[in-house]
Design a protein that fits this description.
alpha+beta, 9 helices, 2 domains, Tumour Suppressor Smad4, 297 residues, 37% strand, Rossmann fold, four-stranded parallel beta sheet, ten-stranded antiparallel beta sheet
Length: 297
């Protein structure tokens, strides 16, 4: 049997994995010689994936998107030919990236896919000296998706974001910057920016005007100018859900393989929903088909 490393985070998703590891391990050991490693804190999945990648054909992780982000970050420090396949058993709160993979909704079904499913290549982003799996973002709305209750998202769709964002209208400020990308430049004040490779952010599944391909070497990018009222805010969130320019000229969307962003002031960034540091310059590059990840049906 080929060897598989199973990394899991018991603390993800409010402890969703507790008491449910036995059937997961049954599914994995049916096909693999399994080594088990519980993560021991932030960064441990990255360190373990990097240090032990050469021992295994596949690394399966279970936890939230943060756990998957850590595993991929560890593998991206290795030469391309030395990165094992990755399986994902989502057990977090939002599980954005699982929606891209068409993974089943239950742990047991996801474990069966992680064990026997076929891996496909996906693009990975690099942000200066860091890696990200599906989104890098700055500005006013970077935490709205994660602070809006899931029940409200399910009932109201993008209007749930409008309601949450409207409470912040008075504090939204534009950030003057220059954004260079494939074939173009934007110089303006933007209150929000998102560089993504996903159909879902913060538990909200959008409906992009053009299909999102995870392996085409391109990011979907949205830059947002300052809204003045709730009606404009509603138009912004609708445009972000569609990844298309809005009628009011506040949202600019495009696709690109790389960006260089230079801000006149330091900007806080999030990478895959976690704090990614404060930067005035960002070099963001799409690493086409850099990692293979197991998909569902």
């Amino acid at each position: 049997m080929d060897k598989l490393l199973f990394l899991y985070n018991l603390h993800a998703g409010k402890g969703m994995l507790r008491g449910k590891l036995a059937p997961i391990l049954d599914a994995l050991t049916e096909h693999w010689d399994v080594t088990v490693h519980p993560t021991r804190g932030p960064g441990d999945a990255t360190d373990t994936a990097r240090a032990r990648a050469g021992e295994f054909k596949r690394i399966v992780c279970s936890g939230g998107d943060g756990t998957l982000h850590e595993v991929v970050s560890g593998l991206m420090t290795l030469p391309e030919g030395e990165r094992p396949e990755v399986g994902y058993i989502p057990a977090g709160t939002t599980n954005d990236f699982a929606k891209n993979m068409s993974l089943p909704g239950t742990l047991n079904e996801a474990a069966a896919v992680a064990a026997a499913g076929a891996p496909r290549p996906v693009d990975i982003g690099t942000f200066n000296d860091q890696s990200f799996l599906y989104v890098a973002a700055f500005g006013a709305f970077t935490d709205v998706a994660y602070n809006t209750p899931q029940q409200a998202k399910n009932l109201l769709g993008h209007l749930a974001y409008v309601m949450e964002g409207a409470t912040r209208l008075g504090s939204i400020q534009p950030h003057p910057m220059t954004v260079e990308y494939d074939g173009g430049t934007e110089s303006d004040g933007f209150c929000y920016g998102m560089v993504s490779n996903t159909i879902s952010v913060g538990g909200f599944k959008g409906t992009p005007a053009q299909p999102v391909a995870l392996d085409d070497g391109l990011f979907e990018v949205a830059l947002v100018r300052q809204p003045q009222n709730p009606l404009q805010l509603q138009g912004i969130f609708k445009a972000l859900a569609n990844m298309a320019d809005d009628e009011g000229g506040l949202v600019t969307c495009f696709r690109t393989s790389k960006l260089r962003i230079v801000s006149q002031e330091p900007l806080d960034w999030t990478l895959d929903g976690e704090f990614g540091g404060t930067h005035r310059q960002a070099e963001i590059i799409n690493r086409k088909r850099a990692v293979t990840i197991v998909h569902g049906a």
